[in-house]
Design a protein that fits this description.
Organism: Sphingomonas piscis
Bound molecules: nicotinamide-adenine-dinucleotide, the ligand O=C(O)C(=O)C[C@@H](O)[C@H](O)[C@H](O)COP(=O)(O)O, zinc ion
Oligomer: single chain
CATH superfamily of the largest domain: Dehydroquinate synthase-like - alpha domain
Strand order of the largest sheet: 1-2-9-6-5-3-4
GO biological process, one term: amino acid biosynthetic process
Largest sheet: 7 strands, mixed
InterPro entries: Dehydroquinate_synthase (IPR050071), DHQ_synth_AroB (IPR016037), DHQ_synth_fam (IPR030963), DHQS/DOIS_N (IPR030960), DHQS_C (IPR056179)
Family: Belongs to the sugar phosphate cyclases superfamily. Dehydroquinate synthase family.
Distance between the termini: 44 Å
Radius of gyration: 20 Å
EC number: 4.2.3.4
Number of helices: 13
Shape: globular
Order of helices and strands: EEHEHEHEHEHEEEHHHHHHHEEH
CATH class of the largest domain: Mainly Alpha
């Protein structure tokens, strides 16, 4: 088993990664079982595909599944309110841990519900998508989307344990796997140029399900994220903001497409990373070659790299309006994660929104 520690003092926890780990859920989750039961929040699709594996591994435990609809729409006040009522109806106690069994939507929603239920109870992440393996299950960002934008209501609330079994990805469809891959490549672009080179050679293997390549890439991305989170848990400095590479652009694209299946979060991040690198190249911060390598790699693994490809016709002015609600805004200025080269992302607070709008109009 690969174990990545997330060093956060009294909120420290482990990320355990191993094929077949789900079969050991009884042993792994033992410390969190209270009164013989475990409350598990999941979505209907995950539960249909993987629920039996979890409940069989928890033989003898009274598993209480609480299911929500699959998809980004469940990161909403309506679903959160209903979930809270259902958790309270189970007479859940503050000393209990809730298990988030699903992708990033379930992790973000359940994590937020745990943060506010009875003023905070514990939770454990058992992620089931590639995206949630490499990114959303680690670091404690939880929350929901609201009319004003993506993840604008939420809390930092760390899980007590993360259990990653790459074999759960066997039932995940190929488009979702590719979307999750974008957050792996993002990590290489941020601060690990050698890892990006490795991905250029092995990205297909990661996507196609080579277990060794997948485990290596998952561990690498998780370890990178854990290091950044340990250094800047609440994004008060510029360190954690780097994990937002591609997201200022990407979240605007998700807003424009109504958080719908038209553009998955990971696809928006891929497109956003290409835009951030191309914008950086136009400003001569990084080379045109690095921007092209980024575009070519995402294209090679089947991710969208242009607005036209994603079917987005909105003007730069409309897209930058979405960016105005970005959480990285300070003193009225939106911060952008730009790049001095592959593996050299940095936070830039000098960007003029009119320049971004004109860039988007030129680079449809
Ligand atoms: N908190 C963070 O740090 C963080 C980081 C990155 C992304 N996110 C958030 O994560 C969300 C995206 O997460 P996601 O890409 O995992 O999407 P998701 O949770 O919507 O899952 C994608 C789809 O796959 C299905 N699914 C999940 N696991 C499956 C499995 N093993 N077999 C079959 N079907 C399965 C789900 O039912 C869903 O329909 C976004 O809301 C994004 O904002 C959060
Ligand atoms: O963990 C982080 O920090 C990230 O930025 C990871 C991102 O991949 C993730 O999508 C996150 O939810 C975006 O953060 P937000 O603060 O912009 O909502
Ligand atoms: Zn993301």
């Amino acid at each position: 088993m690969r174990v990545v520690p997330v060093e956060l003092g009294d909120r420290a926890y482990e990320v355990r990664i191993a094929p077949g780990l789900l079969e050991q859920a009884g042993k792994q989750l033992q410390p969190f079982i209270r009164g013989g039961r475990l409350v598990v929040v999941s979505d209907e699709q995950v539960w249909a595909a993987q629920g039996a594996r979890l409940t069989e591994a928890l033989d003898g435990v009274d598993v209480n599944p609480v299911l929500v609809a699959a998809g980004e729409g469940s990161k909403s006040f309506t679903v959160l309110a209903d979930l809270m009522d259902r958790l309270l109806a189970l007479e859940i106690e503050r000393s209990e841990h809730i298990v988030a069994f699903g992708g990033g939507v379930i992790g973000d929603l359940t994590g937020f519900a745990s943060a506010i239920l009875k003023r905070g109870c514990g939770f454990v992440q058992v992620p089931t998508t590639l995206l949630s393996h490499v990114d959303s299950s680690v670091g404690g960002k939880t929350g929901i989307n609201v009319a004003a934008g993506k993840n604008l209501v939420g809390a930092f609330h760390q899980p007590s344990l993360v259990l990653i079994d790459p074999e759960v990805l066997d039932t995940l469809d190929a488009r979702q796997v590719r979307a999750g891959y974008a957050e792996i490549a993002k990590y290489g672009l941020i601060e690990d140029a050698d890892f990006f080179v490795w991905l250029e050679a092995n990205g297909h293997a990661v996507i196609e399900g080579d277990l060794e390549a997948r485990c290596y890439a998952i561990e690498k991305a998780v370890a990178g994220k854990a290091r950044i989170v340990a250094a800047d848990e609440r994004e008060t400095g510029d360190k954690r903001a780097l994990l937002n590479l591609g997201h200022t652009f990407g979240h605007a694209l998700e807003a424009e497409t109504g958080y719908s299946e038209r553009l998955l979060h990971g696809e928006a991040v891929a497109l956003g990373c290409v835009q951030a690198m191309t914008f950086s190249a136009e400003r001569r911060l990084c080379s045109a070659d690095d921007a092209e390598r980024t575009r070519a790699h995402f294209a090679a693994v089947g991710l969208p790299t242009s607005l036209a490809e994603a079917g987005i016709t909105a003007s730069g002015e409309v897209l930058t309006r979405h960016m105005a609600s970005d959480k990285k805004k300070a003193g009225g200025k939106v911060a952008f994660i730009l790049s001095r080269g592959i593996g050299q992302a940095y936070v830039d607070r000098t960007v003029d929104m009119a320049d971004v709008a004109a860039f988007l109009d030129r680079n449809g």
